[in-house]
């Protein structure tokens, strides 16, 4: 590859100052002969002087012959002589660039770069022969920009969402740090596809699939054509990497970019001097903090910073007539909204000024100080008792993993190199597990997918026997993985192996920059997938998976987003530590003295107040004695029954005591009268120490009615209906019906 740009520019300036006939000769090298039936593709002159350093350029005549076809140079360039001089100079510039590209084709050893140079050389020849008025690359590489938003726009969005609330001076420093990161990324030279494949195999022990390799090759050649080559071929329009590429390309290269940027910054290198030295140190410190933030946003599917419509609605609102002044807009910008395309399928959600998932939330009254949380968390590392790094008691699979009882193996069929014998044994065993546990799936279909080179399987081996696994197919460029089969042998189920497999699969996919799972689950698998975080509300854009995943009749599509901040395989330990942290914080809060206002009820004439109503008593952990608590619960249920009966229409005549003016002699015949009002008073006075007393009073109301009135009277019918209603309610609340001879159902 040509590196001496100054030499290239000098060569081009000399060519531009050549006489017209010499310029025509150079253009003739890239134009075929126009003589009828001549197949000569380019003009080649006869040698006029012996090899060696030229002493003087010989004079050129347009009637000189081509050594290939014996036709004059005029037959090669006569169609160019009619063009304006400006167009001729433009073609001459392209011709000189084509010579440099031809040198690159001869010297380049990387096959992918060489392919690109050959495509470019062919396009330059077509342009010089006037077949095309402009360069045509759409058939191979499309036109930039290739992704929206670009890296520059996304970085600006990150600064707005993360640091927009800071003062003007602080946010300016963050913007400068972001611009320096973009500058360094823009100057970065990506690995060739071959180099990247070798590094991936050496570091991860695993090759990317063919689709992933092809996607990176395309992105690399686009960078070479639109970003790198224009530096020494100025006939091509130059673009910046950060302006034409976006999230997908950055996810492929950021692993290496981050490592190299961090090493360079930690050594204090920027490539450009910044004065004064304090300013330089401040910029580098902010860059080192911003790089991991950018990494999180880069791989977070829920990040609004990669929304192409970020900020469009806010700009529109600020230009409307009658809108707030620039000063008020600055204050109210956080409440304005914009539509995002990353909402739930079928609807849009507001995204720009909605608080992203990684932003700090506003502190509320009663929040525990962050410094206290940090100190308490550090203290947990020094407490006496079981070590916190020990595996949680209920996590059986991880205990067995540490003991060497179970192992996980990522297996898949390959064509080149051939699959080893151990992997084939695992694949055959997995086929048997899936066939046995998924009887509705055809065995031929299971076999075809397991041995397909695009599918991989996470196998769970216990005591050298495969007991389960998850077969999946990753789609790196679409940003998701399809779960195809998931099963554990029946005698090994309900031990946590299914969760163990899924958690490790989540971690594996996040290492490969995939942050969403999709699967079709039948009625028997829905419960399992819900426990693993799957949902029927698919937040993943449909156009990115439609036509890629396999559809099953009678199954339900479910999805699961992956959070890059969570280590799923360590989730049980994380939850355990969180519980200990919460308990420690509660203990610290309880040790703090706290005062409550005094009682004011005695000023109102109250002589007694229940202990549970005293402010602060419940917070001390005091509880009612079991017997009192049970009685309180019973009174609540009895009051519920009594209220229901008072509202029951046929029982309205039993609400108040019987008026003797309407029923003469009633109290002569009825020795123990009863009504709902009297029962309410007794309930309030804690008379019903046992449920049987309440039951007896209620039945007495209906029995008194039957004793005093004629059997076929309207009041007796009301009593019978009301008693049946009472007994139904009594049984509904779980009370047993006493063995009582007066009950007349």
Summarize the structure.
With 745 residues, this protein is an alpha+beta fold. The chain has 26 helices and 8 strands.
β-sheet strand percentage = 5-15%
Q: Total strand count, please?
A: 8
Q: Quick one: overall form? A: elongated
Major sheet attributes: 6 strands, mixed
Unreliable residue stretches: 313-360
Question: Structural class of the secondary elements?
Answer: alpha+beta
What's the tally of helices?
Answer: 26
Strand order of the largest sheet: 3-4-5-6-7-8
* Alpha carbon gyration radius: 41 Å
Rounded mean pLDDT is 78
C-alpha termini separation? 103 Å
Helicity, as a percent range: 40-55%
Number of domains: 4
Catalytic activity: L-lysyl-[histone] + acetyl-CoA = N(6)-acetyl-L-lysyl-[histone] + CoA + H(+)
Main location: cytoplasm
Family: Belongs to the acetyltransferase family. GCN5 subfamily.
Domain Bromo: 646-716
List keywords for this structure.
745 residues; alpha+beta; Aminopeptidase; six-stranded mixed β-sheet; 26 helices; 8 strands; 7% strand
Describe this structure in words.
- This protein is α+β, with helices and mostly antiparallel strands.
- The chain folds into four domains: 5-47 and 60-128, no CATH class; 152-227 and 242-318 and 331-350, no CATH class; 405-561, 3-Layer(aba) Sandwich (Aminopeptidase), CATH 3.40.630; 626-732, Histone Acetyltransferase, Chain A (Up-down Bundle).
- Helix content is 47%, strand content 7%.
- The protein is built from 26 helices and eight strands.
- It has helices at residues 5-16, 20-28, 74-77, 85-107, 111-128, 151-163, 168-187, 193-204, 210-228, 241-244, 247-266, 277-299, 312-319, 326-332, 370-379, 396-403, 421-437, 443-450, 497-511, 526-531, 571-591, 626-646, 666-669, 676-684, 691-708, 714-732; strands spanning 339-340, 349-350, 406-411, 456-462, 465-475, 480-488, 516-521, 556-561.
- The chain has a six-stranded mixed sheet with strand order 3-4-5-6-7-8, with helices on both faces. Strands 1-2 form a two-stranded antiparallel ribbon.
- Helix 6 (151-163) runs antiparallel to helix 7 (168-187) and helix 17 (421-437) packs antiparallel against helix 18.
- The radius of gyration is 41 Å and the shape is elongated.
- The termini are far apart.
- The model is unreliable at 313-360 (pLDDT under 50).
């Amino acid at each position: 590859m040509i590196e001496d740009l100054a030499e290239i520019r000098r060569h081009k300036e000399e060519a531009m100052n050549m006489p017209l006939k010499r310029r025509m000769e150079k253009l003739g090298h890239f134009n075929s002969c126009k003589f009828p039936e001549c197949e000569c593709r380019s003009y080649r002159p006869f040698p006029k002087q012996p090899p060696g350093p030229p002493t003087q350029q010989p004079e050129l005549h347009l009637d000189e012959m081509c050594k290939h076809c014996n036709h004059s140079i005029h037959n090669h360039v006569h169609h160019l002589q009619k063009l304006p001089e400006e167009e001729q100079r433009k073609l001459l510039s392209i011709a000189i660039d084509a010579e440099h590209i031809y040198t690159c084709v001869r010297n380049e050893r990387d096959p992918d770069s060489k392919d690109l140079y050959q495509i470019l050389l062919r396009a330059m020849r077509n342009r010089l022969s006037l077949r095309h008025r402009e360069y045509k690359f759409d058939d191979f590489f499309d036109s930039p920009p290739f992704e929206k938003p670009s890296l520059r726009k996304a970085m600006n969005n990150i600064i707005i969402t993360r640091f927009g609330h800071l003062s003007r001076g602080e946010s300016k420093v963050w913007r400068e740090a972001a611009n320096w990161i973009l500058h360094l990324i823009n100057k970065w030279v990506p690995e060739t596809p071959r180099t990247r494949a070798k590094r991936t195999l050496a570091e991860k022990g695993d090759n990317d699939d063919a689709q992933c390799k092809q996607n990176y090759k395309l992105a690399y050649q686009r960078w070479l054509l639109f970003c790198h080559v224009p530096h020494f071929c100025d006939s091509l329009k130059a673009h910046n990497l950060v302006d034409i590429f976006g999230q997908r390309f950055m996810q492929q290269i950021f692993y290496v970019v981050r490592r190299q940027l961090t090493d360079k910054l930690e050594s204090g290198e920027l490539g450009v001097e910044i004065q004064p030295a304090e300013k330089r140190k401040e910029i580098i410190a902010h860059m080192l903090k911003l790089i991991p933030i950018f990494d999180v946003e880069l791989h977070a599917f829920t990040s609004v910073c990669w929304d192409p419509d970020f900020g469009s609605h806010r700009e529109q609102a600020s230009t409307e007539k009658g809108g707030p002044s620039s000063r008020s807009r600055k204050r109210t910008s956080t409440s304005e909204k914009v539509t995002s395309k990353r909402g739930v399928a079928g609807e849009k959600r507001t995204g720009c000024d909605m608080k992203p998932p990684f932003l700090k939330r506003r502190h509320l009254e009663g929040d525990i100080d962050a410094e206290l949380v940090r100190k308490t968390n550090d203290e947990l590392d020094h407490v006496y008792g079981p070590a916190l790094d020990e595996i949680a008691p209920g996590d059986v699979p991880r205990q067995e993993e540490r003991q060497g009882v179970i192992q996980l193996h990522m297996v898949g069929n390959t064509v080149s190199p051939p699959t080893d014998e151990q992997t084939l044994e695992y694949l055959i065993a997995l086929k048997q597990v899936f066939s046995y546990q998924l009887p509705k799936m055809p065995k031929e279909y299971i076999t075809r997918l397991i041995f397909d080179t695009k599918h991989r399987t996470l196998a769970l081996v216990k005591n050298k026997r495969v007991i389960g696994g998850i077969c999946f197919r990753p789609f790196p460029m679409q940003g998701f993985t399809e779960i195809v089969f998931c099963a554990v042998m029946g005698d090994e189920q309900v031990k946590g192996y299914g969760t163990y497999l899924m958690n490790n699969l989540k971690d594996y996919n996040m290492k490969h920059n995939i942050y969403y799972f999709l699967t079709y689950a039948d009625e028997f698998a829905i419960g399992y997938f819900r426990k693993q975080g799957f949902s029927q509300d698919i937040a993943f854009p449909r156009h990115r998976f439609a036509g890629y995943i396999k559809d099953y009749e009678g199954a339900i599509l479910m999805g699961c987003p992956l959070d890059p901040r969570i280590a799923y395989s360590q989730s049980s330990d994380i939850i355990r530590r969180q519980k200990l942290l919460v308990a420690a914080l509660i203990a610290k809060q309880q040790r703090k003295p706290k005062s409550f206002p005094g009682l004011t009820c005695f000023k109102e004439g109250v002589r007694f107040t229940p202990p549970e109503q005293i402010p602060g008593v419940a917070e001390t952990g005091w509880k009612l004695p079991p017997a009192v608590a049970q009685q309180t619960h019973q009174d609540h249920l009895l009051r519920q029954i009594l209220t229901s009966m008072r509202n029951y229409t046929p029982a309205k005549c039993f609400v108040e005591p019987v008026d003797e003016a309407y029923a003469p002699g009633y109290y002569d015949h009825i020795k123990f009268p009863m009504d709902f009002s009297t029962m309410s008073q007794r309930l309030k006075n804690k008379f019903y120490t046992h449920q049987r007393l309440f039951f007896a009073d209620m039945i007495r109301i209906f029995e008194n009615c039957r004793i005093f009135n004629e059997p076929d009277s309207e009041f007796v019918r009301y009593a019978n209906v009301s008693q049946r209603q009472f007994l139904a309610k009594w049984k509904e609340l779980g009370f047993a019906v006493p063995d009582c001879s007066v009950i007349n159902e």
